[in-house]
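note to self: the first set is below, dont mix up w the second
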Amino acid sequence: MDNFLEVLMMVIFGCSWPVNIRKAWIGRTAKSTSIFFYILVLIGYLCGLGSKYIKYQNGNPAPIYVTIIYVINAIMVTIGILIWIRNSILDARAEARRRKEAAAPPPPPPPPQS
């Protein structure tokens, strides 16, 4: 029963990652995303995988589907981190463009009509 509940928790978490990934990809900004959150979640999944490995080494392996779900979720979080990096670069480029446009002198007035 404990494996079932763990898998259920992981599946529910796993359902949220594709939504998060899509939103981040389409939004093209990292402004409302926390890289620290992603890293903490990834560390949590890696700890879960470590736990499964230790159980395996001690002769008490978890069912393979539990490990697979951890791996899938860790991959999705890693994708989220990569999208955050891409979006941070896009944000920096957009900010540089805004600064350049703000610093540019205004265009000269048109010549008078005769």
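second set (the one i keep forgetting abt)
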Amino acid sequence: MEKKIKHSIGHWVGIGILVILGITAFVTLGAFVVQALWNWLLPELFGLPLITFWQALGLLVLSRLLFGGFGSGARGGRGRHRKGWRRGPLTPEEKERLQHSAHPEESED
């Protein structure tokens, strides 16, 4: 039993290390792509200076913060529904409340 637990812990530690290395490689590749695209296009088109790897990484992080966020769809980062909204048909009470809020002048007779 003790060997199985040690093997299980070692297995998860190995997976954790692989995940960290994979994320690092993915972010590094993204920074190199941003740097290559910037240095290829922007100096020629707009006369901007060349950037380093670290500046490209900073741009990648900044654009992620401004436009993408760091959350996943499960946490609402890219969800299509606002918090508190539900899917499915409205109940009759909800329909009536919605009609009264859309046309308040009609409900004051």
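remember for set 2: The longest helix spans residues 2-46.
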